[in-house]
Specification:
By secondary structure, this protein is of the alpha/beta class. The protein is built from six helices and five strands. The protein has a single domain, classed as Rossmann fold.
């Protein structure tokens, strides 16, 4: 028997607390303000908000997957271990499929973190398929671009950042994340934008606006 839960897992994903974050962002957003998410990952946050939206991630395969979904691509419902290994070794053959499999069919939603086995009757691929198809309406109209956050230039926007956390497992695709460089970038962006960051800790010149009570 196959059964699936509602959500595709994304390593470090905010799907379970997205509503709380959106509530906070909504409090800080000006009317019709452009929304920007530089570390979009599982696309769980500004996808639920409306207006002009820009989503970025350094993972080009993930971004290609979102663009393909917008263009009507339907991801598979089942991927074997052999197919998973083949896609892992041939990532550029079909980037959208690679993005889907690298996360949706991987252990804990970690980028090619090991084939998620269907051992308890759970079909992870079907789970991911259902989850992304459910997300489709929410992601229509978002501008997706594969980009390193350090290359972004935005003004007068509300920027929500959910970066790789300091001292936690790194995202293999992006190499080592430099947290102090990140906070310097946020200082720069904050001059012309409203910037909200999800992190466990922050330098002293940042204000904590919400504690994680959820
Ligand atoms: C914590 S996850 C984001 C989770 C997302 N908010 C969610 O709810 O699913 C961090 C993301 O940052 C991306 N990332 C890491 N380094 C980056 C960089 N230098 N520029 C842009 N994105 C980067 C990773 O690929 C990953 O998708």
């Amino acid at each position: 028997m196959c059964f699936s839960s509602e959500l595709m897992q994304y390593f470090g994903g905010k799907q379970r607390i997205a509503n709380e974050i959106i509530k906070t962002l909504t409090e800080y957003a000006d009317k019709d303000q452009t929304l920007v998410e530089p570390f979009v990952g599982g696309c769980n946050v500004i996808s639920k908000m409306r207006g002009e939206r820009y989503c970025y991630d350094i993972n080009e395969y993930l971004i290609e997957m979102y663009k393909a979904i917008q263009n009507g691509w339907i991801p598979p419902k089942c991927i074997t271990k052999e197919q998973y290994d083949h896609i892992k070794e041939n990532k550029d053959y079909d980037k959208a499929l690679t993005g889907f499999v690298g996360i949706g069919c991987s252990y804990s939603g970690k980028w090619f973190g090991g084939y998620a086995k269907n051992n308890t009757g759970r079909n992870y691929c079907l789970n991911a398929h259902n989850s992304i198809m459910k997300q489709k309406d929410d992601i229509m109209g978002i501008n997706f671009l594969a980009c390193d956050y350090r290359d972004l230039v935005h003004n007068s926007c509300l920027i929500y950042c959910d970066p790789p956390y300091k001292g936690t497992t790194q995202y293999s695709i992006s190499g080592k994340f430099d947290t102090s460089e990140f906070w310097d970038t946020i200082r720069k962006w904050s001059k012309n934008n409203t910037v909200i960051v999800s992190e466990y800790t922050a330098p002293d010149d940042f204000r904590c606006i919400k504690k994680n009570t959820y």
